[in-house]
Design goal:
Elements lengths: L1 H7 L15 E3 L3 E3 L5 E5 L5 E3 L12 E4 L12 H10 L3 E2 L2 H9 L24 H6 L7 H4 L3 H4 L27 E4 L8 E3 L16 E2 L11 E3 L1 E4 L1
Length: 232
């Protein structure tokens, strides 16, 4: 009867457009990239070229988010830049509750892989790369925290999907560890990033509950990346 009614009034039934290619559907409600994002620089005529993920994205340059297995994800990125890169890919930055749902799974559990922390399941527990470069006991400022050498050190940032058991039932990888991930949220002008990174997944909450809310949306350092979501 509904289909007949829509024909009578001259309107086609509404259909879900589905997820953009390569994304994962979460509980029939929204889409999320299965891997943390890298960047591609957008050139004239909509051409692109890869961007060095170990360098800070430049202000005024247009970037597009790229999510696929086996690439080095982009650190050193601000929430403002992450949001724009998702939009350039026809997606959006994940809402905080969406990110948390994708991380915890349908159960839900505090770790993507289950209720209990397992060291080495994800890329975490590494040595902090800043004192590795600059020595212990120093005061680290923006320049040191954005040094391109930090994430390029051995036993630091991993390629996407390099820890195949760092996923939950939704098959979304690296939501805990590897890089913090910017999401939409925060109060008082501050942004928020979730999940911890390759050094720490405990200080500001454990695993999927890890949240840092102390930085402005323009803040960036080596430890922060992102992934994109999309509406169904």
């Amino acid at each position: 009867m509904l289909a007949l009614w829509t024909v009578l009034v001259g309107q086609a039934p509404r259909r879900r457009r589905g997820c953009p290619a390569g994304m994962v559907v979460i509980a029939g409600a929204f889409c999320i990239d299965p891997y943390e994002a890298a960047l591609a620089e957008v050139l004239p005529r909509n051409r692109t070229r890869s961007w060095n993920p170990y360098t800070v994205p430049r202000t005024g340059v247009r970037y597009r988010a790229v999510s696929r297995r086996g690439i080095t994800p982009q650190g050193y990125v601000s929430q403002v830049q992450a949001r724009a890169a998702c939009a350039s890919a026809g997606k959006r930055l994940c809402a905080e509750n969406e990110w948390e749902q994708a991380c915890k799974g349908p159960a839900p559990t505090p770790w993507p892989y289950g209720p209990t922390y397992v060291r080495g399941r994800c890329n975490d527990g590494r040595m902090n790369p800043v004192p590795r470069l600059y020595g212990p006991g120093n005061v680290w400022h923006e320049r040191e925290m954005n040094d391109p050498r930090l994430n390029a050190l051995p036993l630091a940032l991993a390629r996407t999907g390099a820890f195949p058991r760092c996923k939950g039932s939704y098959n979304v990888f690296d939501m805990v560890g590897n890089l913090h991930e910017w999401v939409e949220g925060g109060r008082g002008g501050h942004g928020v990033f979730r999940g911890g990174y390759y050094v720490d997944v405990h200080i500001n909450g454990h695993g999927c509950d890890y949240a840092t809310r102390a930085h402005y949306p323009t803040y960036h350092d080596y430890s922060i990346g992102f992934r994109c979501c999309a509406s169904l």
